[in-house]
Amino acid sequence: MKLVAKFSLVFVIVFGIGFAASAYLAHGFLQKNATGEVIQNARLMMQTALAMRNYTTRQIAPLLSGEKFRQTFYPQTVPAYAATESFNYLRAKYPEYSYKEATLNPTNPRDRPADWEADVIHIFRDNPAKKSLVGSRDTIAGTSWYLAQPIVAGESCMECHSTAAAAPPAMLAIYGGSNGFGWQLNEVVGAQIVSVPASLPVEIAHRAFQNLLMDMCLVALVTLIAVDLALILIVVRPVSKLSEMADRISKGELDAPELPVHGKDEIAVLAGSFDRMRISMAKAMKMLEGE
C-alpha cells in the first residue's frame, strides 16, 4: 500500500472516531436546542394572545359599552374570544401549535377544560405565585409539550361573570344564564395554554442534524484532499526522487545529478545526506579504479 493510501486510511479511521463522537454529542445538543426553540416560539405566541386580549379589553370593548352593548352582544369584544380567533388565523402558518383559554366555569362551551387542562388550572389556583408552567403529556398522537399561564379575573371580567343578573341580556340570550358566573375578583379562573407536539422539535433537530452531518462530511473530504496534496508535494515526491536515485546508484550510475535541497526539514536533510553519500561513493569508486 502506498504512503498516501496509508495516510488516507489512518485519517479516515481517526476522523471516523471523532465524527461518531461529535455526532453523538451534537444530536443531544440539537435536540435540546430545538425543544428550547419550540418553547420560545410558544412564549411569543402566548404574548401575542395576551396582546390581543389587552387590545380587545382596552380599545374594542369600550366602543361597545353602555346600554347598546347590553341590547346587542358581540363575542368579538370578549378578550378570550378575540385571542382564540386571532390564534386560529396564526395557525394557518403554524399548524403544529394550538391555543386554548381553558376555564373551569366558562360562558362559551368551547372553553371548557379537558381533564389535564383542569389539573393545570388547579396548579395555578394552589400556587398563586406561579406565573407560567411548562410541561409535557402523553396523547394518542404521542408526547406533547405545553406552555400555560393563569387567567385571573379582573374588574372588566366582573361586568359579565359576577352574576347572571349583572350580565348583558344579549349575552344571556346566546349562552344562557347557567354557566360562566360566580367568578371572584383576582381569582384564577382558567389558564391560557399553548400546545405543540414533541415531534416538532424532533423533526427540527433531525433536519439540523442531517445538515450538520453533510457539512462535516464535506469538510472532511476537502481536508483529506488538501492533506493528501500536501503530503504528495512535501513528502511523496521528494522520497520518490530519493528512491529513483538510489535505484540508479544500485545499478552503478554514480553520475546522476544532485538532488535539489530546499529548506531545513527532515526530507531536505535526508536529501542532502543522500547527495553526500552518492558523492563519497563516486570518489571511492574512482580511487578503486585508479588502484
Structural commentary:
The protein has 291 residues and is of the alpha+beta class. The protein folds into two domains: 13-206, Beta-Lactamase, CATH 3.30.450; 216-290, Helicase, Ruva Protein, domain 3 (Orthogonal Bundle), CATH 1.10.8. It has helices at residues 3-60, 67-71, 79-90, 115-126, 155-161, 169-175, 199-250, 266-290, and strands at 98-103, 133-139, 142-152, 188-197. It has a four-stranded antiparallel β-sheet, with helices on both faces. Helix 1 packs antiparallel against helix 3 (79-90) and helix 7 (199-250) runs parallel beside helix 8.
Compact summary:
The chain is an alpha+beta fold. The protein has helices at 3-60, 67-71, 79-90, 115-126, 155-161, 169-175, 199-250, 266-290, and strands at 98-103, 133-139, 142-152, 188-197.
Uncertain segments are: none
What order do the SSEs take from the amino end to the carboxyl end, as H and E? Answer: HHHEHEEHHEHH
> What is the name of the CATH topology of the largest domain?
Beta-Lactamase
Q: Mean pLDDT, as a whole number? A: 81
| Structural Rg | 39 Å
Write the CATH architecture name of the largest domain. Answer: 2-Layer Sandwich
Helix segment count?
8
Strand content: 5-15%
Helix fraction by DSSP (H/I, runs of at least 4): 55-70%
Report, as a whole number of angstroms, the end-to-end distance. 45 Å
Alpha-beta classification: alpha+beta
Largest sheet: 4 strands, antiparallel
Question: What's the layout of helices and strands?
Answer:
Blueprint: H1 3-60, H2 67-71, H3 79-90, E1 98-103, H4 115-126, E2 133-139, E3 142-152, H5 155-161, H6 169-175, E4 188-197, H7 199-250, H8 266-290
Antiparallel strand pairs: 1-4, 2-3, 3-4
